[in-house]
Every structure is written in structure tokens, then in C-alpha cells.
Amino acid sequence: MDKKKRIIAVAIFAVLAAVLMFGTVVVKSPGHHGSIGELMKDAVLHETNKISLFGLMEVNPGLISAFTVTGVFLVFCLAVRIFVIPRFKRVPGKFQLILETAVGLFDSLAKSNSPHRNKFLGAYLFTAGAYIFVGTIFELFGVQVVTTHGTSMSLPAPLADINGAIMMGFLSYSVILSGGFAENRLKGVGQALKDFSLPVSMSFRIFGALLSGALVTELVYHFIALSYGLPILVAVLFTLLHALIQAYVLTMLTALFYGEVSEPAHEKTKKDKR
């Protein structure tokens, strides 16, 4: 019986592969409006595909994605706080274990890099990491919206918009400045301001990583010989990889710089003497 099942599975796979090969050779391109350069330019600048915000103004699709992801987060957190956390047990279940592991991961990251002031840092790292991860994989759901030109498109990741990436970078930099001011006042702020390129590097690191995945996927879609099955694999792998890497990189950099500027001045003096 197992042998027959294997033969049937191989036969189905062979038929599907033959159909895809036939479609690659015979079927004409599904049609792409504009050149690949125009498609990439719009993916970066969002000059063509705009979305109406309640009929008030035209905005980038990344803003709608940001509102959607934020709304989902707020509803999810409210539901967890009301219905899940009061029922936590000493022996955790699967969902409780996942939450505790995630919180513990970012809490340990904050404590290891900033042993003096880490309560707020741990909360921010968890929030920023979760937003980057969920916001990045959000594009995999393919939420469809109608543009102002009447065409349909899938909402991108919020941080694939340069404006969203810049705000995330400057928000993290503001947290670093607050840590320096809370511990060392103006001296801590001055130390943080020395790394004035940090928010720019954070912003463009996130934006460049997410945009590269979108552009590679668009390139694969653009060529008919590659547009059967392969874009799914490319999109999923690039999206998951970027979600994990960028969430880790930004939270790690924020924790490192926060711990550096929030270190008490007398301890820095002792280290310098050593």
C-alpha cells in the first residue's frame, strides 16, 4: 500500500512539473505594466500606486500597512491581557510558554547589555522586535487594496516604506538618548549625540534589507520562465530571513548603545583607570 502511494505521489508530481514546463514554454507572459525599472522605482518611491485615506488624501501603501499592523497588535495585546494573562499557570501551556520565552529573550538582551537601566529597555526591545517581525511577514498575507487608479495591489511591509524605516530608526535613537539623559543627564545626551549617524544607518539598514527582498521577488515575477512556483519560495524565504535578522539587528544595536550611554560615569572612570 505504501509503495502504491509513493508511485501515485511521484506520478502527480511529474504531471504538475510537466504542466508547469508546458506553461513556461507556451503560455504568454501574464503582462506587466511598465518596465522592470519603473516597477522598482515605484516600489521605492510609491509615486504611482497611492491609496486613499478615508477620502481625505492619497498616501503610500506602507502607511496603510502600518495602521493595519498596529491595529492588529493593539487588539491582540488587549485580548491577551484580558483573557490570557489572568489564566497563567505555574506549569505553562504552549501559548504561555511562547510568550514567556519571547519576553525572556528580549529581557535578557536588555539586562546583558544594560545592567543599570533595563526595565524600559526590555519593554521597548520586545515591542520593536515584535513589530519588525510581524510587520515584515505581514506582506506574505497578500492583503489586497484598491489604489486611486482603480488597480488592485497587495499591501507591502510597513518598513518597506522609507518613511516607516526612518521613523523606526529615530525612535530607537530617541530611546538611546533617553537612557543617557536618565543616568548621566546632559553628559549622557552628549555622548549619544556623538553617534549622529546611528539613526540614519539603522533606518537604511532596515529599509535596504526589506526592499531588496521585494525587488528580488519582483524580478522573479517579471520573467515568465521563473514566474511559476519559484516566486512563492523566494518571497517566503526572503521575508522570513529578513524578519528574523532585522528584528535581531535593530534590537541588539539599540541595547548596545543604550547600555553604553546609560552606564554611570563613576563606573566608566574605574574602567578607564584599569
Characteristics of this structure?
274 residues, mainly alpha, two-stranded antiparallel sheet, 9 helices, globular, two-stranded antiparallel ribbon
Largest sheet: 2 strands, antiparallel
Element order: H for helix, E for strand: HHEEHHHEEHHHH
Sum up the overall morphology in one term. globular
Percent helix: over 70%
Beginning-to-end CA distance, first to last residue: 74 Å
Q: How many strand segments?
A: 4
Gyration radius, rounded: 24 Å
Percent of sequence in beta strands = under 5%
Kindly state the mean pLDDT as a whole number? 79
Query: Which sequence of strands runs across the widest sheet?
Result: 1-2
The tally of helices reads 9
Low-confidence stretches: 24-33
Count of domains = 1
Given the helix and strand composition, which structural class is it?
mainly alpha
Question: How would you describe this protein?
Answer:
This protein is mainly α. The chain has one domain. The strands form two sheets. The chain has a two-stranded antiparallel sheet with strand order 1-2. A two-stranded antiparallel sheet has the order 3-4. It is globular and about 70 Å long.
Short note summarizing the structure:
A hairpin with a 5-residue loop joins strand 3 and strand 4. Helices cover 72% and strands 4% of the residues. The protein is globular, with a radius of gyration of 24 Å.
